[in-house]
Automatic annotation (TrEMBL):
Name recorded for this polypeptide: site-specific DNA-methyltransferase (adenine-specific)
Entry's Gene Ontology BP terms: DNA restriction-modification system; methylation
Catalytic activity, as annotated: a 2'-deoxyadenosine in DNA + S-adenosyl-L-methionine = an N(6)-methyl-2'-deoxyadenosine in DNA + S-adenosyl-L-homocysteine + H(+)
Molecular function (Gene Ontology), one example: site-specific DNA-methyltransferase (adenine-specific) activity
Magnesium is among the record's keywords: no
Length: 483
């Protein structure tokens, strides 16, 4: 039922001339789903209050509630077409009244982790792109059929939403910024092995894939009320700079079952890393930060190692956000391991001296669809120097792409070998004492792979070709003599 509903939503979106890409579809679906979720949550809270004999004060005033403008019902529970806005009236209400009302929620609270603040933040950062009130009415009627009232329903909806985010990532470069292959995330989580009571942080959380997968890893049906409350309110923390990604992340976590996600809409890199206090730190960092240039000079002043490479700034941030003994797993371009510029060398040195970089996972080309670069995953623990680095060179035995993506089976051997850091055809260890102290080069060089035959000199190749030509000419002459 949910899959059919999502397909029908797509059809309604494609019929509107204001929506032209998968990014638009994801954004507009998100605010519709959020308001329907909010209405179902309010209904659930109202029912709980009535059972306890308490009054309930709704978050959204009745004039702007989902049941009033999006899905007014008749006494028999069917859509009241006489009360339901449509056409230009619907667009005028959404743009002129609903969105301005919802934006004001951010002003009513100073707590960025509260649901009220999330409402204001979301509707301050995105806008309605529907131009046709008839297309919007079609979408509203489909979304109204969705039910957020059970964990099973949320699980199905979260799977569909993840598929949408993945499709958005496959659609182009910008969408790809928000999607990290889930099998890779799951492997990173298995290696870091979070426990209930530990905090998990992603300062470049995008669509919150790491936080959602960590939630799936930790949640169980037999959790105590105390553990459940810990997972809901005191475990997952994220920050995201871009508006669309922030909305996707909040909605993704909500659909996975986190009622008020602790995701903040902010540029993580504007925080001076020297100002990070113990109360700001976390037990686990899981992240795939953006790479490339883009941050202003004044932002670079927040870091001891100045760099125009955004990922280098994030890595410094993550190292300082970890508590002593904390574990990190961070995706970064593989050129970080060998670049000889001052920032790269200094950052590798700091990483090796302030953390135990125990594992480097070398990912094959095509792991990140459309990225065009090779990546590695750095696994490290805060608080002790690195003495030995264990490398694993992932080789799925095929070319990765849209129709043949990375899967969990591809990473099974890595996950199995990593705890013991065993040597194999794909894995080996390097002692830091054997590294060049001038460059701290961490390049992936598989000492267990068979050595390639040395290339022949050009003159030798030419001599061989001439000899074979002469041999061929002699054979042809012998055949001529036999005729």
């Amino acid at each position: 039922m949910f899959e059919n509903a999502f397909n029908n939503i797509d059809r309604a979106l494609r019929n509107d001339e204001g929506l032209g890409s998968e990014l638009d579809y994801a954004e507009q679906t998100s605010w519709l789903l959020f308001l329907k979720y909010l209405d179902d949550l309010e209904t659930e809270r109202r029912d709980e209050a009535e059972l306890e004999g308490k009054d309930y004060s709704p978050i959204v005033s009745p004039a702007y509630s989902w049941k009033t403008w999006a899905a007014p019902k008749t006494a028999d529970g069917k859509l009241d077409h006489n009360a339901a806005l449509t056409g230009a009236d619907l667009i005028d209400f959404v743009n002129g009244k609903l969105f301005p009302y919802l934006k004001k929620f951010r002003e009513s609270t100073d707590n960025p982790d509260s649901l009220d603040y999330k409402i204001g933040e979301i509707f301050s950062e995105i806008g309605n792109k529907f131009r046709s009130g008839y297309s919007l009415r079609d979408a509203l009627e489909i979304v109204d059929q969705l039910d957020f009232g059970s964990q099973k329903a949320k699980h199905e909806l979260s799977d569909l939403y993840e598929t949408r985010i993945k499709r958005m990532g496959n659609a182009g470069r910008n969408g790809g910024e928000y999607y990290t292959p889930r099998p890779l995330i799951r492997a990173m989580i298995k290696v870091t092995d979070p426990k209930i009571g530990e905090t998990i942080y992603d300062g470049a959380c995008g669509s919150a894939g790491f936080l959602c997968e960590a939630w799936q890893y930790l949640r169980r049906d037999d959790l105590s009320a105390s553990d459940w409350a810990t997972l809901q309110r005191r475990t997952f923390y994220g920050q995201e700079k871009k508006s669309l990604a922030y909305v996707l992340g909040v909605m993704n976590m909500i659909l996975h079952g986190i009622e008020a996600p602790s995701i903040r809409h902010t540029n993580t890199l504007t925080e001076n890393v020297m100002d990070i206090q113990e109360r700001d730190r976390h037990d686990i960092v899981l992240a795939n930060p953006p790479f490339g240039g883009g941050e202003r000079k004044e932002v670079q002043q927040n870091f001891p190692i100045k760099s125009g490479e955004t990922a280098y700034l994030f890595l410094q941030h993550f190292m300082r956000k970890l508590r002593a003994g904390g574990r990190g797993a961070v995706v970064i371009k593989n050129t970080f391991l060998s670049n000889t510029d001052g920032a790269s060398v200094a950052l590798r040195k700091e990483l090796l001296e302030s953390c135990n970089l125990h594992t480097v996972l070398d990912c094959p080309g095509g792991t990140f669809q459309g990225a065009g670069v090779k990546t590695v995953v750095l696994f490290f623990e805060k608080g002790s120097k690195t003495r030995s680095v264990w490398y694993y060179q992932l080789d799925p035995g095929r070319s990765l792409g849209k129709t043949n993506p990375l899967n969990d089976a591809d990473l099974a051997e890595f996950v199995a070998l990593q705890p013991g850091r065993e040597d194999s055809a794909q894995s080996w260890s390097v002692d830091v004492a054997d590294m060049d102290a001038e460059t701290w080069d961490l390049s992936v060089k598989n000492s267990n792979a068979p050595e390639a035959a040395p290339l022949r000199a050009p003159a030798e190749i030419i001599d061989t070709m001439l000899a074979r030509d002469a041999e061929t000419a002699q054979i042809l002459e012998d055949i001529r003599g036999m005729l």
